[in-house]
What we know:
The protein has 281 residues and is of the alpha/beta class. The chain has 11 helices and 9 strands. 41% of the residues lie in helices and 12% in strands. The chain has a 5-stranded parallel β-sheet, with helices on both faces. The protein has a two-stranded parallel ribbon with strand order 1-2. Strands 3-4 form a two-stranded parallel sheet. β5, α4 and β6 form a beta-alpha-beta unit. The longest helix is centred in the last third of the chain and has 17 residues, at 249-265. The protein is globular, with a radius of gyration of 25 Å. The protein starts with 7 loop residues before the first strand and ends with a helix. The relative contact order is 0.10.
Amino acid sequence: MAGCREVLMCTPRGRDGKVAPAVLYxxxxxxxxxxFGIGGAQAVAAMAYGTGTVPKVDKxxxxxxxxxxxxxxxxxxxxxxxxxxxxxxxxLVMADGSCDPRFVAADLLSQAEHGRDSKVCLLTDNEELxxxxxxxxxxxxxxxxxxxxxxxxxxxxxxxxxRTREDMVDFADAYAPEHLIISMSDPWExxxxxxxxxxxxxxxxxxxxxxxxxxxxxxxxxxxxxxxxCSGVGVDSFMHYVTYQEITRKGLENLSGAIVQMAEAEGLxxxxxxxxxxxxx
Length: 281
């Protein structure tokens, strides 16, 4: 959709030395014709600098661990565009009495299982509800195959109780989460007041995992508060813009006074002379 003339993909091989069939199938659906079986920081380096087999690229997009993030940060300083420096993953769930505690607990755990450094936050205006959700969360945690990872993430996470919905919105904006789930009555009213979030999930039947896999948004999103200024990856992320101008003599005559005055104010006499030279003929 962005009109990229060449798209290539790097993805790690499994223990059997092969790329996962599901990844190959998805790439084929998307029209990706060149796939390299490498991952991690070494894949970032290969695409940034080029190798005998991997061509040098202009933009490198895609999530990864802390080593991938650092590699992207390094090559970004050397002229290669990247999407963002994302991670660790995070979710903030805003909940009130209209929520289903089972859904909220499941949403919190779905983010916690990403990694031990994932950040999970429950935000509510009801202390009793907070207790119910945390009890449900602990029950579900024991049944998870990745319970050690999720448990470690929960140890560094938060449950916050505030007095009013307005306080909750202010907190959410200050936190600027990667994923914001609004499990509250009149959720669109709340969403309309939110200014900073990577992606917002509205209502009781919009789990964060839908955004990861199926609802259509890209799941590479700003983290660590950067959602106050940055957006998630989209079609426009793959584009760049070139501007053009063609000026007639009459047009330059109309602009010349402003150009010369501004150039002289900056002490750039050659800039001004480039206009004067044309106006003298």
